[in-house]
Amino acid sequence: MDIQFIGENLLPGKLGQFFIILSFCSALLATISYYFATVSSHGDKFQKESAAGWQKIARTAFSLNLLSVVGIGSCLFYIIYNHLFEYHYAYFHSSKTLPVYYIISSFWEGQEGSFWLWTFWQGVLGSVIVLRSKTWENSVMTTVMLSQAFIASMLVGVELFDERIGSSPFVLLRDAVAGPIFSRPDYLTLITDGRGLNPLLQNYWMVIHPPTLFLGFASMIVPFAYGIAGLWEKRYSEWIKPALPWSLFAVMILGTGIVMGSFWAYEALNFGGFWAWDPVENASIIPWLTLIAAVHVLIAYKNSGHSYFTATFLVLISFVLVLYASFLTRSGILGETSVHAFTDLGMFWHLVSYVAVFFILMIALLVIRWKELPITKKDEETYSREFWLFIGALVLSVACIQILATTSVPVFNAIFGSEIAPPPNVIQHYNKWQVPFAVVIAFISAFSQYLKYKKTDAKKFFISITISLVLSLFITAAAVYITKVYTNFMYIILTYAAVFSILANAKILGGAFKGKWRLAGSAVAHIGFAFLLVGALIAAATNNIISVNDTGIGFGDEFAKSNNPRENVILYKDEPIKMDRYTVTYKGDSTEGVNTYYRINYQVIDTVSGKVKENFDLYPNAQQNAKMKQIIASPDTRHYLFHDIYTHVSSVPLKEEDHEDHEGHSDEENYEKPVNHEVNVGDTVRFRDGFITVKGINREAKIQNIPVTAQDIAIGMQLEVNSNGKTYNSEPVYLLKDGSKFDFGKTVDEAGLKLRFTNVYPDKDKLELMVYQKPKAEKSWVVLKAIEFPYINFFWGGTIIMIIGFLLSIFRRNKELKGA
Question: What CA–CA distances, in Å, run from 639 to 208, 258, 352, 482, 636?
């Protein structure tokens, strides 16, 4: 017999599922229609006429797809915003306590929401292509809508031949989770709130970081689609010009999203930095680097006709690597090697097919058109810009291969059944490889600015470059001395290369101010990248642990497994200690929702006058998991112009889980061993913080929910508790019922007492009072780690400068496109 569930709102889910099916079917129809429109446009007169019909159908299907995608998002947001916890997605990703901006974050916390975000941005970009691409619309949109169909299928949520096809965000909780609660028609009355948003994601960066990142992922399809269209329609050179602004846009947006993610990690995670070479971080940066390489080779080809295949291959492989990144983070194959990968939703082979289809499409077209590809028989001159742009792209590609190989170890193990372990020190491993690559890239981005396309005057080149190299040497020496980056030779070399890059590109920027504005974009972007390198290098190489533990006190073996006791100090409440130049005091804590915020006061005191020169509070927070005996901590940071003070709690006293305190059956394990007292009316009993006076006997005591008959005896002991100057009344009860003895204790929480009237001794004319006391409260404490990050604003500032450079380049390339 079917259960008629009470209170469920099924309409938004049914409507949302309808929009999912509609989005998939319309995307598929648009793909097919755009395909035939492209094929027909290259036929005879009759076929060309039919191409217009196919294009009309395709545009209609695309509009329908965009409408359905908006419909999916609207239904899902309605469900989350209105707390319809009968839906699995709303229950597991949101709660009533979340403010609106975190409700927005919960929208894309799950895989289904993030897939929707991807398909939404892809639809928006498709609209721009339809409006602006002119003769490229049919062939480019064929590829875009094929990708749109794949992502739409990720949301369908059906099983076909025992294989999961997608995962719908509109699944009901009772269909996704088994439990006896769902045997009740009124089960919703038992669900008072959802599980809420992961506390690590409750950060303002997570409101804007995922949309930016997924716009970056979505925009990668556009240069890929232009590249495929160029090969498909044999318009080998024509696609470069329209694809270049899109490539720059994708690089800019994806780079912005990646840096936003690093800022979130810096502000919300406790690994002590902005980049940890986590597999998910690596998966996003790999396609970004390959597309940067592609942009430079595209520019080289546009100006000299060299390296066509390399440019095309890098553009195409960049989007395939985005799909591979999605596979890594969503298939569950990373297991526990990443702190923020999605769990497996049973779509392993579905994700594999998405990667495989686009990879095969790319390889097939390259092979088929191989003999027709434009090839310049004359080799590039060594003193030409295109030669060194090619070399730079090659270095970036090799750097990506190293990151890709290490990140893909879990995939390799899954395919071949091997048990290759990841590097024991991941950060050290990647830095060892990537710092030399960064040095080469920085040098190339510097001296290539002095080169011209096709051929350069060697004499002028060497004079200009020698002056910059010598000047860079002096500036680097000063920078190394000031920042103390002299612990590692490669770090000094990288600083020198970055300074050289800044100077060389500044010279070009100077020329822009004289009227050569078209050169400004690349110069500004390279300067920003060099500053980014300098900031990352100095912050990572010279960060200073100021919470040095010289006491020899450890915090247990369990603590030492994931923390270095030498880098953590214990702070007792209101007991200041000296940390570096700071006097640091733990001032207490406060709880908001699931998070407890610990107030840590920092002071800088003048050693001569004794006056406080600087005074500020930081509020690192932690969510406690008493069952797992651990905390989930997030740092707080004090920002200065030339350094940051980064603070997080590594350990705090775990709060005990609350136990029910029923009358007569309370939780007595939270109290010290009880003390028995034989008393009478008027007697006084002392305890640690005061005394208890027996004021009288109540022979008509009442007991909640227990009937007392004329044959029963219920006596209440009327007590007055004096604790720390305050008075409280309590009346524990002794009961004789049906020949059995019972007692019903009372707690006086304000005094930390539990009182039981446990017996009556008529022969002694005495009563037995049992007194329980809570243990004397330990002094509040936290274990804290504090790090000083010097010159980290070079990293954030360099990012902003780099984005400005990309914007200038996009404007320039769009202007060229309009001119053409």
Answer: 21, 21, 44, 20, 10
CA-to-CA distance for 598 and 587, rounded, in angstroms?
8
C-alpha to C-alpha distance for 258 and 210, rounded to whole angstroms: 9
Give yes or no for residue 542 having a pLDDT over 90.
Answer: no
DSSP SS3 for 651? strand
Does residue 594 sit in helix, strand or coil? coil
Residue 88: how many other CB atoms lie within 10 Å: 22
**What's the pLDDT at 485?**
82
Query: What span, in angstroms and rounded, lies between the C-alpha atoms of 338 and 698?
Result: 65
User: From CA 527, how far away is CA 688, in angstroms rounded?
Assistant: 69
Strand partners, 590: 597
Decide: helix, strand or coil at residue 743: strand
Q: What are the backbone dihedrals phi and psi of residue 742, each rounded to the nearest 5 degrees, phi first?
A: -140, 150
Residue 659 has pLDDT above 50, yes or no: no
User: In this structure, what is the dihedral angle of CA atoms 393, 399, 400, 406, given to the nearest 10 degrees?
Assistant: 170
Tell me the mean pLDDT in the region 770-785: 86
Please give the Cα distance from 765 to 795 (Å, whole number).
81
CA–CA dist 182, 455 (Å, integer): 76
Main-chain dihedrals φ then ψ at residue 750, nearest 5 degrees: -65, -30
pLDDT band at 663 (very low <50, low <70, confident <90, very high): very low
Farthest CA pair distance, the chain: 120
Q: How many CA atoms lie within 13 A of 268 on its CB side?
A: 19
Tell me, what's the pLDDT at 646?
Answer: 92
Contact 617, 635 (CB under 8 A): no
Which pTM does this prediction carry? 0.81
Closest CA to 152 of 91, 73, 35: 73
- Burial class from Cβ neighbours inside 10 Å (0-12, 13-18, 19+) for residue 303 reads middle
- The rounded distance, in Å, linking the Cα atoms of 451 and 467 is 15
Report the alpha-carbon angle 762-766-767, nearest 5.
105
The Cα–Cα gap between 106 and 306 comes to: 48
* 589 to 39, 407, 522, 568, 653: CA distances (angstroms): 68, 40, 49, 19, 12
Helices (H), 203-239: 205-219, 221-232
Q: Which of 777, 779, 723 is nearest to 750 (CA)?
A: 723
**Residue 100, Ramachandran bin (φ over 0: left; ψ between -120 and 50: alpha; else beta):** alpha
Q: Which of 584, 605, 603, 592 is nearest to 649 (CA)?
A: 584
Residue 555 has a pLDDT of: 81
pLDDT in tens, 475-491: 999 988 888 887 778 88
For 91, residues 6+ apart whose C-beta sits below 8 A from its C-beta are 85, 173, 191, 194, 195
Instruction: For residue 375, give the amino acid letter.
Output: I
d(CA 144, CA 93): 30
Cβ(501)–Cβ(530) below 8 Å:
yes
Highest mean pLDDT among 162-176, 222-236, 791-805: 222-236
Strands (DSSP E) contained in 417-561 are 544-545
Q: Residues 534-556, buried b or exposed e (16+ Cβ, 10 A)? A: bbbbbbbbbbebbbebeeeeeee
Q: Identify residue 238 by its one-letter amino acid code.
A: E
pLDDT at 505 > cutoff 70:
yes
* Residue 776 to residue 103: CA distance in whole angstroms: 42
Query: What pLDDT digit, counting tens, does each position of 414-471 carry?
Result: 888 888 887 888 888 888 888 999 999 999 988 888 777 766 666 777 887 888 889 9
Structure tokens at 34: 């755009």
> Which of 217, 232, 238, 253 is CA-nearest to residue 118?
217
Structure tokens at 156: 């369908």
